[in-house]
Amino acid sequence: MPTIVVDVMPKPEILDPQGKAIAGALPRLGFTAFEQVRQGKRFELHVEGEVTDQILEQARTAAAELLSNPVIEDVVNVAVLDESEASA
Amino acid sequence: MPTIVVDVMPKPEILDPQGKAIAGALPRLGFTAFEQVRQGKRFELHVEGEVTDQILEQARTAAAELLSNPVIEDVVNVAVLDESEASA
Protein backbone atom coordinates (compact mmCIF):
# COMPACT_ATOMS: atom_id res chain seq x y z
CA MET A 1 0.00 0.00 0.00
CA PRO A 2 1.52 3.40 -0.93
CA THR A 3 2.54 5.40 2.08
CA ILE A 4 3.02 9.12 2.64
CA VAL A 5 5.46 10.03 5.37
CA VAL A 6 5.00 13.24 7.36
CA ASP A 7 7.86 14.33 9.62
CA VAL A 8 7.22 16.87 12.36
CA MET A 9 9.94 18.36 14.56
CA PRO A 10 9.89 20.84 17.43
CA LYS A 11 10.89 24.30 16.21
CA PRO A 12 14.60 25.03 16.79
CA GLU A 13 13.80 27.75 19.34
CA ILE A 14 11.51 25.45 21.36
CA LEU A 15 12.97 23.47 24.26
CA ASP A 16 12.85 19.73 23.68
CA PRO A 17 13.17 17.97 27.05
CA GLN A 18 12.95 14.47 25.54
CA GLY A 19 15.76 15.27 23.14
CA LYS A 20 17.80 16.74 25.99
CA ALA A 21 17.26 13.60 28.09
CA ILE A 22 18.45 11.40 25.22
CA ALA A 23 21.46 13.66 24.61
CA GLY A 24 22.34 13.21 28.29
CA ALA A 25 21.89 9.44 28.23
CA LEU A 26 23.90 8.75 25.08
CA PRO A 27 27.40 9.51 26.48
CA ARG A 28 26.64 7.47 29.62
CA LEU A 29 26.04 4.49 27.32
CA GLY A 30 29.26 5.12 25.39
CA PHE A 31 27.82 7.03 22.44
CA THR A 32 29.96 10.14 22.42
CA ALA A 33 29.60 11.29 18.82
CA PHE A 34 26.40 13.30 19.20
CA GLU A 35 26.25 16.94 20.27
CA GLN A 36 22.54 17.54 20.30
CA VAL A 37 19.39 15.47 19.92
CA ARG A 38 15.89 16.54 18.96
CA GLN A 39 12.88 14.26 19.11
CA GLY A 40 9.96 14.69 16.78
CA LYS A 41 7.21 12.63 15.22
CA ARG A 42 6.89 10.57 12.11
CA PHE A 43 3.48 9.75 10.66
CA GLU A 44 2.80 7.15 8.00
CA LEU A 45 -0.41 7.74 6.06
CA HIS A 46 -1.42 4.69 4.04
CA VAL A 47 -3.26 5.34 0.81
CA GLU A 48 -5.51 2.95 -1.09
CA GLY A 49 -4.49 3.06 -4.74
CA GLU A 50 -2.15 5.57 -6.28
CA VAL A 51 -0.77 8.71 -4.64
CA THR A 52 -1.96 11.54 -6.85
CA ASP A 53 -0.85 15.16 -6.57
CA GLN A 54 -4.24 15.89 -5.05
CA ILE A 55 -3.73 13.30 -2.30
CA LEU A 56 -0.23 14.60 -1.60
CA GLU A 57 -1.69 18.10 -1.31
CA GLN A 58 -4.31 16.71 1.12
CA ALA A 59 -1.46 15.19 3.14
CA ARG A 60 0.36 18.54 3.24
CA THR A 61 -2.76 20.28 4.47
CA ALA A 62 -3.45 17.58 7.06
CA ALA A 63 0.19 17.82 8.21
CA ALA A 64 -0.18 21.55 8.77
CA GLU A 65 -3.66 21.46 10.31
CA LEU A 66 -3.89 18.21 12.27
CA LEU A 67 -0.55 16.46 12.57
CA SER A 68 1.49 19.41 13.77
CA ASN A 69 1.05 22.28 16.18
CA PRO A 70 2.33 25.28 14.21
CA VAL A 71 3.06 27.23 17.40
CA ILE A 72 5.79 24.82 18.50
CA GLU A 73 6.40 22.44 15.59
CA ASP A 74 7.55 22.49 11.97
CA VAL A 75 6.48 20.05 9.28
CA VAL A 76 9.93 19.22 7.91
CA ASN A 77 8.99 16.62 5.32
CA VAL A 78 5.95 15.30 3.42
CA ALA A 79 6.93 12.64 0.91
CA VAL A 80 5.87 9.38 -0.65
CA LEU A 81 7.76 6.51 0.96
CA ASP A 82 10.00 4.20 -1.04
CA GLU A 83 8.42 0.78 -0.77
CA SER A 84 11.76 -0.63 0.35
CA GLU A 85 11.73 1.58 3.44
CA ALA A 86 8.12 0.84 4.49
CA SER A 87 7.48 -0.53 7.94
CA ALA A 88 3.97 -1.86 7.29
CA MET B 1 25.83 20.80 11.52
CA PRO B 2 25.52 17.31 9.97
CA THR B 3 22.48 15.45 11.20
CA ILE B 4 21.65 11.76 11.40
CA VAL B 5 17.96 10.94 11.29
CA VAL B 6 16.61 7.87 13.08
CA ASP B 7 13.03 6.83 12.36
CA VAL B 8 11.25 4.48 14.73
CA MET B 9 7.77 3.06 14.09
CA PRO B 10 5.51 0.77 16.09
CA LYS B 11 5.73 -2.78 14.77
CA PRO B 12 2.92 -3.58 12.31
CA GLU B 13 1.37 -6.13 14.70
CA ILE B 14 1.31 -3.63 17.60
CA LEU B 15 -1.81 -1.54 18.18
CA ASP B 16 -1.18 2.17 17.67
CA PRO B 17 -3.95 4.12 19.43
CA GLN B 18 -2.52 7.54 18.44
CA GLY B 19 -2.47 6.50 14.81
CA LYS B 20 -6.02 5.16 15.09
CA ALA B 21 -7.21 8.43 16.65
CA ILE B 22 -5.66 10.40 13.78
CA ALA B 23 -7.16 8.04 11.21
CA GLY B 24 -10.55 8.68 12.82
CA ALA B 25 -10.11 12.45 12.91
CA LEU B 26 -8.91 12.90 9.31
CA PRO B 27 -12.21 12.14 7.53
CA ARG B 28 -14.12 14.36 9.98
CA LEU B 29 -11.88 17.22 8.80
CA GLY B 30 -12.43 16.38 5.15
CA PHE B 31 -9.27 14.35 4.52
CA THR B 32 -10.71 11.18 3.03
CA ALA B 33 -7.73 9.80 1.12
CA PHE B 34 -6.06 7.91 3.95
CA GLU B 35 -6.91 4.35 4.95
CA GLN B 36 -4.61 3.86 7.90
CA VAL B 37 -2.26 6.00 9.96
CA ARG B 38 0.67 4.97 12.14
CA GLN B 39 2.51 7.35 14.44
CA GLY B 40 6.15 6.85 15.25
CA LYS B 41 9.15 8.88 16.27
CA ARG B 42 11.83 10.78 14.44
CA PHE B 43 15.12 11.60 16.13
CA GLU B 44 17.68 14.04 14.82
CA LEU B 45 21.20 13.44 16.12
CA HIS B 46 23.50 16.40 15.46
CA VAL B 47 27.14 15.59 14.89
CA GLU B 48 30.09 17.94 15.29
CA GLY B 49 32.27 17.57 12.22
CA GLU B 50 31.92 14.91 9.57
CA VAL B 51 29.68 11.83 9.74
CA THR B 52 32.08 8.90 9.44
CA ASP B 53 31.07 5.27 8.97
CA GLN B 54 31.98 4.74 12.62
CA ILE B 55 29.61 7.48 13.78
CA LEU B 56 26.83 6.12 11.58
CA GLU B 57 27.42 2.69 13.12
CA GLN B 58 27.21 4.30 16.59
CA ALA B 59 23.91 5.87 15.56
CA ARG B 60 22.59 2.48 14.41
CA THR B 61 23.55 0.89 17.73
CA ALA B 62 22.05 3.79 19.71
CA ALA B 63 18.87 3.49 17.64
CA ALA B 64 18.57 -0.18 18.51
CA GLU B 65 19.57 0.10 22.18
CA LEU B 66 18.29 3.48 23.37
CA LEU B 67 16.00 5.15 20.84
CA SER B 68 13.68 2.20 20.21
CA ASN B 69 12.01 -0.49 22.25
CA PRO B 70 12.65 -3.64 20.20
CA VAL B 71 9.66 -5.41 21.76
CA ILE B 72 7.16 -3.03 20.19
CA GLU B 73 9.10 -0.85 17.73
CA ASP B 74 11.16 -1.15 14.58
CA VAL B 75 14.00 1.16 13.56
CA VAL B 76 12.90 1.81 9.97
CA ASN B 77 15.59 4.26 8.91
CA VAL B 78 19.01 5.53 10.00
CA ALA B 79 20.43 8.01 7.49
CA VAL B 80 22.40 11.21 7.14
CA LEU B 81 20.04 14.09 6.51
CA ASP B 82 20.22 16.21 3.39
CA GLU B 83 21.14 19.69 4.58
CA SER B 84 18.22 21.10 2.60
CA GLU B 85 15.77 19.10 4.72
CA ALA B 86 17.26 19.98 8.13
CA SER B 87 15.01 21.58 10.72
CA ALA B 88 17.76 22.95 12.99
From TrEMBL, chains A, B:
Annotated compartments: Cytoplasm
Family that this chain belongs to: Belongs to the PurS family.
EC number: 6.3.5.3
GO biological-process terms attached to the record: 'de novo' IMP biosynthetic process
Any GO MF annotation of the entry: ATP binding
The protein's annotated pathway: Purine metabolism; IMP biosynthesis via de novo pathway; 5-amino-1-(5-phospho-D-ribosyl)imidazole from N(2)-formyl-N(1)-(5-phospho-D-ribosyl)glycinamide: step 1/2
InterPro entries in the cross-refs: PurS, PurS-like_sf
Entry protein name: Phosphoribosylformylglycinamidine synthase subunit PurS
HAMAP family in the cross-refs: PurS (MF_01926)
Subunit: Part of the FGAM synthase complex composed of 1 PurL, 1 PurQ and 2 PurS subunits.
Gene: purS
Pfam families the UniProt entry points to: PurS
